[in-house]
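Reviewers of the previous submission asked for a worked example of the structure-prediction workflow described in the proposal, so we include one complete record here. The input consisted solely of the amino acid sequence. No template or homolog information was supplied to the procedure at any stage.
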Amino acid sequence: MDRRDFLTTSALSAIGATAALGTTEAAGAATAERTELSHTSAGTPIGKASSVPVGGSATFTVAGKPGIVLQPKAGQFVAFNSTCTHEGCPVGFVRSTKLLVCPCHHSEFNEVTGAVVRGPAQRALAKFTVTVVKGELYVK
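From that input alone, the workflow returned the following structure tokens.
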């Protein structure tokens, strides 16, 4: 996939996530409306589990930090800080490769662990703990 295809795919994914989570565009990124709600013992709510397609992703913001939540397999949710650990660009999920990819320098990260698959990044993405309560996703 070349850079243009990646950026097009990323933009379409962001638009799809915006529609799926009922989100609004802010500074070019989809941000879930629920992300700044009060914390509970389960964490901070980021949206409905049903809004994240199996094999897909959605973006959110918690405490001013951008995140991405994925559902690699039905009922399995993982979430990461979506800021690349190399130079701070926002990573996006590329469904066809099942990788989180940085458009700036092409670092690639594992969709389940956040580990670096290909540099120049040297550190994994920071992982959130995801909890599902009554169909709602929470992160800590």
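Helices lie at 3-21. We consider this example representative of the routine output the project will generate in years two and three.
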